[in-house]
Amino acid sequence: MPLFDFVSTLFATRAWPLSHPEHTTPTTAAISTPAVPAMPLELVLTVIETACADADSDEDRNRLLSTCSLVCKAWSTASQRLLFSSITLRSQSSFQLFMNAADRTTDHGRTLGDAVKRMRVVLDHNQPFSLHHHSFALAVTVCPNIQELDIALYGCAEPGNDVVGVPDVSRLRRSAPSFDEQTISLLKSGPSIKTLHFSNWSENQQSIFQLLDIWPSLQTLSIGGTAPQHLQDSPPPFPCALEAVRFNFQSTPSADFMKWLLHNSAGSLRSLHFDRDPCIDVFEYLVNSFGSQLESMSFPGFASLEYASLIPRCTRLRELRTETPSCPSAFYKHLPGNLDRLVFGLDHETSLNSIIDFVKTHDTLKNVEVLLWEGGLNHSLLPPLKMACALQGTELTISHDLQRFRATTMMVSLLPLI
């Protein structure tokens, strides 16, 4: 029985009235229905969080929480706090609505502002009512407990040159202003951020350096879009000791930028993830510099044996993720022996023999996740893979949805392994 149906049944049960002697006239108090006891707040939160966990998207989650907030006062408070734990600001109007709700001169406003843990902002200079830089900074300052910030920056097309559906390369040539001193000052005076996602879809080369200079508390960094160039007047090496990095650039940043960014991460970096395969010289530098301490790594695909030959140097690797179904079979023959999680793509031509052999010979492997491509479900060696996992006590997960798979990859890969 679904959780909401169970709770509804539980609290819909009627209390039977006590019988009275025939000669007694029951009083109003005697025949009144006893008040239904209030649900404990912990149970309310459990019900709502369980329902949210099954939501397929942020829109579904927000719609569910909005509905829950209308049930009663207790549910309203719990739902609103969960609803405000992750917010998105795309325009000046959304900023104004948020600031009105999180007004720190009221108790309720402070409660909602304190509930914000993650904020996503879209700075799109091609839109007429886009969110201002200064407004974005003000919104951050009213959220003292925020830990994660996701910023998407879009440039402005020249008048008459804005074409819907233009390729990404053209979008990257659009100009966008850098952050002004007032915005930077506000952000520096605000809360410390542990996780920063920055997607720069403009030609601005200064913004990434400005943002990285604001929060010395960063532990996790995800950057993409326009590849940063190592400027002639670049600031001193990035001071943060990063634990996890993720890159999603149209072209791979230079090794000089990587050296600048990871200068102080020699003893801390544990997770390295690429949404696009990097050039081999940058990947070789990263493996030579950090491979011995990496515990988690993901690539769209290891297209050549040059990449595969570097993986054995990552001797402490515990998680390896790739979504391509066409990795060379030799790649799986040289994986680190202490791997406990393997994720790969599968189509009708994928060579599974080496993967099955790896499962059979490595007791440390705890989880195998398969992303099905065309024909993957009918692969002749999928049943033997299932059998090998069952015999070894290895959990096997099969995914059909690429977008959901990538979203899960993003959430899981940037979390520290336990």
Short descriptors:
single chain, 418 residues, alpha/beta, twelve-stranded parallel beta sheet, 12 strands, 36% helix, globular, disordered N terminus, disordered C terminus, LRR_dom_sf, F-box domain-containing protein
Q: What is the strand and helix layout of this fold?
A:
Blueprint lengths: L2 H10 L15 H4 L9 H13 L4 H11 L4 H11 L2 E4 L2 H10 L5 H9 L2 E7 L8 H9 L6 E7 L13 H4 L9 H9 L5 E7 L5 H6 L7 E6 L18 E6 L5 H7 L9 E4 L5 H11 L5 E4 L5 H4 L10 E4 L18 E6 L6 H9 L5 E6 L9 H11 L2 E5 L2 H12 L5
Parallel strand pairs: 1-2, 2-3, 3-4, 4-5, 5-6, 6-7, 7-8, 8-9, 9-10, 10-11, 11-12
What do you see in this structure?
This protein has helices at 3-12, 28-31, 41-53, 58-68, 73-83, 92-101, 107-115, 133-141, 168-171, 181-189, 207-212, 255-261, 280-290, 305-308, 353-361, 382-392, 402-413, and strands at residues 86-89, 118-124, 148-154, 195-201, 220-225, 244-249, 271-274, 296-299, 319-322, 341-346, 367-372, 395-399. The chain is built from 17 helices and 12 strands. The two termini are 33 Å apart. Residues 1-22 and 412-418 have low confidence and may be disordered. Helix 3 runs antiparallel to helix 4 and helix 3 packs across helix 5. The protein is globular. The protein has a 12-stranded parallel sheet with strand order 1-2-3-4-5-6-7-8-9-10-11-12, with helices on both faces. The protein has a domain at 40-83. It is an alpha/beta fold and 418 residues long.
